Structures
1.
Amino acid sequence: MKDFDTVFDKVAIIGLGLIGSSLTRAISDKKLANQVLGFDGSEVVRAEARGIEGFGADVTETLEEAVSNADLIIMAVPVGAVGSLAQELCPHLKDGAILSDVGSVKKSIIDTVVPHLPETCHFVPGHPVAGTEYSGPKAGFSTLFEGRWCILTPIENTPRLEVEKVSNLWAGLGSDVEEMDAEHHDIVLAITSHIPHLIAYNIVGTAADLEEVTSSEVIKYSAGGFRDFTRIAASDPVMWRDVFMNNKEAVLEMLGRFTEDLTQLQRHIRRGDGQALEDLFTRTREIRRSIIEAGQATE
Amino acid sequence: MKDFDTVFDKVAIIGLGLIGSSLTRAISDKKLANQVLGFDGSEVVRAEARGIEGFGADVTETLEEAVSNADLIIMAVPVGAVGSLAQELCPHLKDGAILSDVGSVKKSIIDTVVPHLPETCHFVPGHPVAGTEYSGPKAGFSTLFEGRWCILTPIENTPRLEVEKVSNLWAGLGSDVEEMDAEHHDIVLAITSHIPHLIAYNIVGTAADLEEVTSSEVIKYSAGGFRDFTRIAASDPVMWRDVFMNNKEAVLEMLGRFTEDLTQLQRHIRRGDGQALEDLFTRTREIRRSIIEAGQATE
């Protein structure tokens, strides 16, 4: 039980992919709930999850079984599936239950969940900034959230106590918890996560389509930098499709800034302005150092 | 001496940064030359190199000392410095000496080196596709080239024997060696290395300049994808400035393709075409698998 009180009696995790299955393992390992229940809409995933040793959750056969007695329900499905999941599960929530999620986009999720929420329940939107390029229940691991940030974007008028219960859970999982409003979250993540993924997907696509350079050459010489982009561009296609569809405004805004800067860089190259290039490349080196100092990357 | 013959009696490495100092260590460790000589234009770097245990080279006080008796001279300086270095060292080359380099751009290097080359010597341009984001003589290590590709772009009429001597050295360092023409090299590397660096530098610059998002937020939430770009954008500023200044044509061409594709992706997002996004994101995932299978990345 470490130095945290049991925050919840029963926690239900809905969606048993990378994030959901990391949650079942971590909550169970760290004994942050008396019981962890898990459910996934796919029968194949449920069967797979049941076969995993140390999975940490009782996998139920129906959504209702998982949800109806839970004190905390965390929806760990792609952003585009959260709305219909909320609609389906909300009628089964018990009085006082807290609903939460792990989506990489917050404003559209709040808009789609709140209309379904019973008056006696609270929705505390969350986003653990953690992940890998792998998917599915086998990809999860209990230390995924350690030393990573979890952002909560509480809705107006949610009692502090409810927010703090969710916050304590994430702290118990080893995360640093931060609160901000949903709109700001969506802008911050557009630049730190969504645009990096978009341009990684894009360059891998560009490279694959070239006529002058064969795929085999792209693969062979990928250690020159390309390789690092392919890791990101191997992330879950449906999850990322939904992120871009549901954070359209912030993504397009940040993409505009990126393209504007890239056009200037292109001009520097065309005109042979080496000093401008060197200045930028020196500045960006500093940021890497700050990230290492902040413990968000290792040397 | 492993299963390679001593390819060279004396090898001189000029420029003792990450690549040069990895070469001195590796050639010495693998006993691929009877003597390794090292020189760097910076007195500070020479002193630093002399203080490193296992550095693998006798660091000379002048360029002439390092070069004049060497059978193979490898220039490991930024692309933009190769021309003036070749001009300075060529008069000291002994008859039959082979000159080589490690630059990430090949056509402009050939154009700048060949006019200085004595008739009795041969220039065999090379490019090990390996590196890290660190610089300087302390950053080097002897296994840097193992399992990586080294591309040679031989000039017309160079005797096969001379090319093979250089090829054998790289094979002895653990690299797979490939030959192609310089122009093709510059296109292949533009997409697999130069453009990935350019867009990494660019997005890190964009993120640093935003008013809506603080630097501290960018750093905190970098684990969402941005972090991986900062590693690449921490690469040596002068080296990379020179790459873009000297591979202008191929870089601008490939940047044009990248931007074209990005514009289309932007349109898919704006129009809400989720299927087009999902299709691309699924396709790019396959390429990652191929890179892992080819041993150029680990899971």
2.
Amino acid sequence: MANITKKVSWSSRADESGAAGEETALLNGSELSRHLAKESQRGKPKEIPHNEKLLSLKYESLDYDNIENQLFLEEERRMSYMSFRCLEISRWVVCGLIGFLTGLIACFIDIVVEELAGIKYQVVKENIDKFTEVGGLSISLILWAVLNSVFVMLGSIIVAFFEPIAAGSGIPQIKCYLNGVKIPRVVRLKTLLVKVCGVICSVVGGLAVGKEGPMIHSGAVVAAGVSQGRSTSLKRDFKMFEYFRRDTEKRDFVSAGAAAGVSAAFGAPVGGVLFSLEEGASFWNQMLTWRIFFASMISTFTLNFFLSIYNNNPGDLSNPGLINFGRFESESVAYNLYEIPLFIAMGAIGGLLGALFNILNYWLTIFRIRYVHRPCLQVMEAMLVAAVTATVSFTMIYFSNDCQPLGSEHSEEYPLQLFCADGEYNSMATAFFNTPERSVRSLFHNQPRTYNPLTLGLFTLTYFFLACWTYGLAVSAGVFIPSLLIGAAWGRLCGILLASITSTGSIWADPGKYALIGAAAQLGGIVRMTLSLTVIMVEATGNVTYGLPIMLVLMTAKIVGDYFVEGLYDIHIKLQSVPFLHGEAPGTSHWLTAREVMSSPVTCLNRIEKVGTIVDTLSNTSTNHNGFPVVVQVTGGDEPAKLCGLILRSQLIVLLKHKVFVELARSRLTQRKLQLKDFRDAYPRFPPIQSIHVSQDERECMMDLTEFMNPTPYTVPQETSLPRVFKLFRALGLRHLVVVDDENRVVGLVTRKDLARYHLGKHGLEELQLAQT
Amino acid sequence: MANITKKVSWSSRADESGAAGEETALLNGSELSRHLAKESQRGKPKEIPHNEKLLSLKYESLDYDNIENQLFLEEERRMSYMSFRCLEISRWVVCGLIGFLTGLIACFIDIVVEELAGIKYQVVKENIDKFTEVGGLSISLILWAVLNSVFVMLGSIIVAFFEPIAAGSGIPQIKCYLNGVKIPRVVRLKTLLVKVCGVICSVVGGLAVGKEGPMIHSGAVVAAGVSQGRSTSLKRDFKMFEYFRRDTEKRDFVSAGAAAGVSAAFGAPVGGVLFSLEEGASFWNQMLTWRIFFASMISTFTLNFFLSIYNNNPGDLSNPGLINFGRFESESVAYNLYEIPLFIAMGAIGGLLGALFNILNYWLTIFRIRYVHRPCLQVMEAMLVAAVTATVSFTMIYFSNDCQPLGSEHSEEYPLQLFCADGEYNSMATAFFNTPERSVRSLFHNQPRTYNPLTLGLFTLTYFFLACWTYGLAVSAGVFIPSLLIGAAWGRLCGILLASITSTGSIWADPGKYALIGAAAQLGGIVRMTLSLTVIMVEATGNVTYGLPIMLVLMTAKIVGDYFVEGLYDIHIKLQSVPFLHGEAPGTSHWLTAREVMSSPVTCLNRIEKVGTIVDTLSNTSTNHNGFPVVVQVTGGDEPAKLCGLILRSQLIVLLKHKVFVELARSRLTQRKLQLKDFRDAYPRFPPIQSIHVSQDERECMMDLTEFMNPTPYTVPQETSLPRVFKLFRALGLRHLVVVDDENRVVGLVTRKDLARYHLGKHGLEELQLAQT
């Protein structure tokens, strides 16, 4: 994730949009300018500004608003009721496919990881058995470390050299995509391939990572691919689903894909739907939500079904997700009213530890952005982490003497005897050797005396720092499972301590319950998700009774954590300077109006415009606008003309490419007829303007935009308050909002960056700078 | 529900908005008019038009769009960051209170019903024991029927005479409220009281009803009351939460209340949230959803906690809802892939039976609207139903010989021996005598051989018709539980038949599983809810594994049912002619534009307007508009003036009441300063214009609307397509949308009724008539 923004550069807002900046100061003459002046006096000019204080201009927005131009309306009007039904059915089919493929991918990852981990365990165990007797344990250590490093190296090489966007969990990128920001290459087939291989390598390489986060990204890529009915990477067009080749439809499917990913990862179909809604939805659409739910259901069912076959238990649908918390029976782990304050306290601890995790990771990421940005360095760092992880584990195991009898009812699959007596196994070794998923489950469910407190304490400490170091490496990996594992470890520790204070045999006695609460607290403290995480946790535990405690814990963790620092994903989004729009405008922004917020002056085009002017406008690299209001000049005066439409750069590019010119010279006034199909074929990789050759003769031609522009763009008057502008913009998923005066003349344009600039900081409303990074 | 619209009267659209109708025909000159002409030729003029073909003009809309006038903006700008934080905290407090009170009410209903039902059972059982030996079973029957009728009479009297809006489940009304329609008296304290008492009476009276649906209405009323910090009915103002006294905030709390109601009824907090979102949300707001979830959680927790005390089991939180499906263990009721087609077939049966139920109930409701509209008739009908229910049950019991041994593991709480041998009980009697909740549970969980097929078949048949007759009576009662019961009965029957076909001991052997599927199918076939119902069912069964089958079943039931008739709630909403807006514009409506849809001409007010004109405009009963565009005349010509704002009837009323006049005669140009508080105090029961006295002198004064009007109303150009208008209207929860020409002059106004008129019928797009009913 951190690999994208490698250079820290910025420019001031005033440089960027010249006159507008001054105009703002003049027109407003009030709090804003004074506020900004104060800010700049107070600012520490010596400090190098981190790029989270900037908004990058390199990110484009997605067009969630339908471009209702004449072509589109004509097509829609031609369509019968039956065609709409067919479309609806094909949406369902696509969602079913998305769910099925996502489930298959999850299944594939799971099986490959299981098999490879089994082989690794066998090799290391045989080695240990062979050499422990001759005292050469260090050989086993080296073998282990080398094996891990090789896996991690493979995973890291493909990520760092072939597809850096596949690094990390991909959740921040999907959040941005669903928010409406076009992150380059995020939903390509290549990204998916690298992601899947990468996550297998990093999990088998024994890093402190999970394979759940990447599933969300994988689901999203699957969705973006399937729904388009073609692959640009493979250069295959199946001539299907052509109607879905626009941002609005694609976004809907990507939501479904992300939900299917969550669903496959955690066996939580409802949690998946809520995740997609929490991150992506602005406008609630009942049919869409229902389809998303369908994709999620199919996804968890597919995974469940194929895993049941893999486990030689066909038909036993008890593996709904990659991670399975095991069944919490109400009787054994009931809670009481007076335990709720304890849970809340644990939530606060989770918030604190989460904030610490995030701050450490933030510093690390800054360091990485500055110094570790060459791919080979990144690969080396990843290998270093793998080796250190192996060494630390081995050291911990070496110095631990927590031996547990073998063969209890919840027996471990990979017990290691090591320095224990026969018939016993080393519980620290188990915690480190197991896949993290298994460790979480054993922390939740093992008998009260399975782990001793010292083991848990040391494990928490080391795993915390390892996980923190690992997140942000150039490998594909998630942070969900490590967080759960850290939390489960200290949660279980809390449980054991509480049980030792009070009498045994009481309701306090089961540390598994506290492990669950600790896991929720830690995860909540790191990622700060709320509603969806509660539902995911509840679904993963399969016990509704735990809803309230988990919710309270997550709320506490979020409140405590937010006091110090933002959530991990938000930190990484900010470090990339993505213009991310939150759900609502900052509370104290009512004194700002569209006049102050908008960019101005605006480059407008005439309804019948000279081709040369259009080419020049598009080629102007200093502005690089993506949307242009179309105007009609009523009288040939100086005054701004009346707004009559809006046209996008991508549309103009297609028009230029197809030479849709009115050749005045030959007095042929017919334009070449373009179809919507031409726009859809070019979607989503529109060529840059530089690749389109326009001859000098053609530059003199005229172009009639009437048919292609959106004739009814949304507009607001200049006096509209920022929250109102924000609401309109967000609710409709707009890309451009035209600001007009009371004569319907264009005075400005509000885009995502203009709104994302304002955010609530420690000292009230802050304004971010825009940068060309 | 049916009691509101008692008279069937209508007027044509052309009468209602004179010139506009003609203009539409002229301007459009296309498919619409031709289509309408065809329709009227084809129409059967002899048939009396049912009022579902009309939209009533008597319903007003709620103002979900903030009125951002100067007063509001000044207040917001004065507020510090801390005040916003405090507001946010008080929102959470209110949601917590809503959840707590809703949970308490659910608990109260449950306990009172249990106690009264226990007493009734004792009385009847003693009587039976006493008289069976002397052969006078008819005395017991009469006693039973009388007892039931008395309870139902009480319940019916309070509903029919005191608060007719409290009849039925209240779900259609809450759907309408959340959709943005102001249903009179729906969220008043009196309604709540009548609802609670009414539901107790009807459940204890042995009607085929449930107490779950009414909880949703109760929760909504609680929310509307608590959030306002005062009670208009009790004339108490606690001077709290004054900020929340507007439709936007109130709606948010009502969503939370409805969710809390669902949560308490079914122990389904997530289902509650999704219900609220499915029915109410247009704009997804993360914090709001989170608060709704909080209210739901608190509600189920409160219910659980107090019921555990009532059951002498404090701390055992195993009663999350009023209805508890019991625990479905994965092992005992696992399903296999090849059972899925069976489930889908059962879904289709559920859809068919649901459609039959709805059609019968529709005819019944029409009959009731025409002939049973006097309160005393309604009470008599309710008593008749109660007596018939009792008689039918007794007859069924009398002719049934399904005796089961007493004292199996799932023993019944109220076993009746009747004509069985000692040590046995009559299973038909159990099915009828139990509360429906208990019967559902025993159908789900009892041992395979507990019910014989004939009992189930007869029970299904009678209960189907009884439930159908009961819904729509003037009693407070829900249709959820009867539907579940019918479905569970025929589902179990299917299970038994399947088991008898195949070998015993196989996976088919457990009929409880099929009872669950049948219950879902039947409920889905009747109410046609999708996402929320799936989640409610999954949460109530406590088993995520059943998610996919339940979802498939509900989908099938909806598809099959929708082929014949709409869902029960939608039928009742239509019969009330409520202008209900669905999520999206009809698919084939792209050829309609704002020009055709809007009402015109529009009554506009000048920014500085004569008081007399305002009073006359407001008093004009023939138009009865609620929102007026405010314009400024640029030059004193005939041309329409430029739009500069929008003002509501309610605001004008407050202004008139406080005599905010500029008295030109005395050349005092200061208006009395009004505060937002004055508007909030008058909310929500603004006085009618008739009650405000304006003297002849005052009529000559002027009124300056600048400060009070919303200066930035949303506008669209005339060419905007209907789906685009619809999307804007729905996403922002608008009440008025001004249509302007390209000079920013008002040409029309789009309101809810203008959009709700268009709907997709069997023959494509249909247009409903507007009526003054």
